[in-house]
TrEMBL record:
<keyword id="KW-0378">Hydrolase</keyword>
<feature type="signal peptide">
    <location>
        <begin position="1"/>
        <end position="18"/>
    </location>
</feature>
<keyword id="KW-0732">Signal</keyword>
<protein>
    <submittedName>
        <fullName>CES3_5</fullName>
        <ecNumber>3.1.1.1</ecNumber>
    </submittedName>
</protein>
<dbReference type="InterPro" id="IPR002018">
    <property type="entry name" value="CarbesteraseB"/>
</dbReference>
<dbReference type="GO" id="GO:0106435">
    <property type="term" value="F:carboxylesterase activity"/>
</dbReference>
<dbReference type="InterPro" id="IPR019819">
    <property type="entry name" value="Carboxylesterase_B_CS"/>
</dbReference>
<dbReference type="InterPro" id="IPR051093">
    <property type="entry name" value="Neuroligin/BSAL"/>
</dbReference>
<feature type="domain" description="Carboxylesterase type B">
    <location>
        <begin position="24"/>
        <end position="511"/>
    </location>
</feature>
<dbReference type="InterPro" id="IPR029058">
    <property type="entry name" value="AB_hydrolase_fold"/>
</dbReference>
<comment type="similarity">
    <text>Belongs to the type-B carboxylesterase/lipase family.</text>
</comment>
<dbReference type="Pfam" id="PF00135">
    <property type="entry name" value="COesterase"/>
</dbReference>
Amino acid sequence: MISVKLTVLLYVLLPAFSQDLQEVTISTPLGGLLGLRRKLLNKNVYEFKNIPFAKAPVDNLRFEKPQPYGSWDNTLDARHFGPSCYQDLSGMESYLKNTNISEDCLFLNIYIPHHVSTESNKSVMVWIHGGGYYTGQAQLYDAAYLAVAGDVIVVTIQYRLNIFGFFATGNSKGNYGLWDQILAIQWVNDNINSYGGNSQSVTIFGESAGAFSVGLLSIMPQNQGLFQRAIMQSGTALSELSMGSITRYASSQVANNVGCSQSDPGKITQCMKYVDANVILAEQGKRFSSSLIQISFAPIIDGELLPVQPKQFLLNSSTSRFFKSLDVIIGINSGEDYIPKRILCEVLVSDLANVMYNNNTDIAISICDKYGAALTRDQLSRDILNSYSDPTFMVPAVESLRLHTGNGNGKQFQYIFSPQSTIPYPEWFDGSAHATDLNYFFFPGTLSTDEDGELSLNLLRYWTNFAKTGDVNGVDLPKWEEYDTTNEHYINLNINITTGQYMFEDRVDFWMNDIPIILNPSSSTRRPIIQTSPTNGSHKVYRHDLSISCFLLLSVVLCFFRSN
Ligand SMILES: *[C@@H]1O[C@H](CO)[C@@H](O)[C@H](O)[C@H]1NC(C)=O
Ligand SMILES: *[C@@H]1O[C@H](CO)[C@@H](O)[C@H](O)[C@H]1NC(C)=O
Ligand SMILES: *[C@@H]1O[C@H](CO)[C@@H](O)[C@H](O)[C@H]1NC(C)=O
Ligand SMILES: *[C@@H]1O[C@H](CO)[C@@H](O)[C@H](O)[C@H]1NC(C)=O
Ligand SMILES: *[C@@H]1O[C@H](CO)[C@@H](O)[C@H](O)[C@H]1NC(C)=O
Ligand SMILES: *[C@@H]1O[C@H](CO)[C@@H](O)[C@H](O)[C@H]1NC(C)=O
């Protein structure tokens, strides 16, 4: 049965989607929309794109919280995607298809399976794209496949990126990109019933910086009621990369460089609002840190959305209540990135030790010993890769799950996604590169075999079962046991789906137990692996090579197309 469906699926998906488009008009309390209906898997999908949820954040609204857009007068043309948020697309045009950029980018897109009826009350999934908080676009993710295969409404949202989303100096408190995400989810809550969605069954999901965002939104108690479930694909709030430790420094540098340094902090923002966007973009694109694990413009502790570091927030039983009430899926890919082995001890380890452990040399030596001991070159390469992805992706995932269990109603599920990535990875590379999972959700046309197609359908079933009920399990699917701290069950999402327990126990122990003891030999208690006092790093200009771009840009599509 599956293989018959699959042949149909691949046959349908490989050609362009453009055939069989019909225009449709609907009316909603906010106004009318002209959208499109298309056929996929022999079913209808309705698409309404470019729906404004916030006023254009320009001029006086630049570097301010987003303002709700409200209603519109004439029928909205919702047939085409709007522009991407302002960003530097040079070198990325081949995979970020929408090269229109604008500060006026706060739009969302809605994919509705089968028919549009306010009665249908379908579960809703809201996708937050990745791209290191500095690039990316909603248009890249064609959610029609997910909507129709899983019978859910999918919404893809945009949020301000890079300095436009995260500028923080003077009177600017930063986190505008997060406020945008929250306003978009609020819009979904208020309006999705007009499109047939159930505002009481909302799942937010994202990958990489999208997963960091989902992680952060999931710990903010003020988001209670906006969504019930969260899926974090390669990233959680506890990753070193989720927060911007040099954002204030980088913001003040840019303000200086564009001539907006003023003694009155209020005037810095006022000045920055009227600087040409291209000038700001060029300045903010410089590197402000030599570290590979510091993103210049990213979320910060602002005393409002984020009063303290995420870890502190989750260790506090009163503030962690909201997070624990949510159902979550948290997982990683088996090989989050490709890193040249020659740089293990000199570059990577010293970077990690510097940024995460105040340049503690004992820590640097232990990481070097732990991950540099393999006897074969291939194994060594894989270990080096892990030395970086373990503290930034794998261990934060395990920590987040552990902090999610107990005294909460929310379910939690852990996965590792591991189908072998091929081109352009070297032979030693074993596993799934960062962002490979996206192909199985959004780009099924890129999958080469029927086995991959079958895995894709299974993933969609797990994800949409979860979105509907909070439980991933369903008929015809291998059982996925819930995670708990005693048994630590996880599922290995590969061509042959298998299950396991205690994922990478030895490596998790190293980061969560051994390292804290090195940091503080007299203490036998566990300490947070991420320190709460970030450093600015040093400010050398780092050569921007491909592996780093891939690491931060967080898109396999990029790595894939660039190397061709
Ligand atoms: C870019 O925007 C213009 C004007 O809105 C539109 O005509 C054009 O089709 C857009 N291009 C793409 C690639 O979306
Ligand atoms: C949709 O389902 C929710 C429960 O999830 C229920 O409270 C709500 O009334 C339903 N809405 C409609 C229009 O059926
Ligand atoms: C971080 O940057 C601020 C200025 O933005 C500076 O005052 C402070 O000394 C820096 N800290 C470190 C550890 O470099
Ligand atoms: C936990 O959070 C609450 C609410 O913000 C705060 O009042 C309390 O002081 C925190 N407790 C600790 C131990 O930080
Ligand atoms: C970290 O330690 C190394 C070795 O002692 C030193 O060369 C380097 O300058 C230090 N880096 C920082 C940022 O303190
Ligand atoms: C999946 O399992 C089948 C049957 O055991 C085996 O022949 C095949 O090699 C496995 N495939 C992968 C990718 O592990």
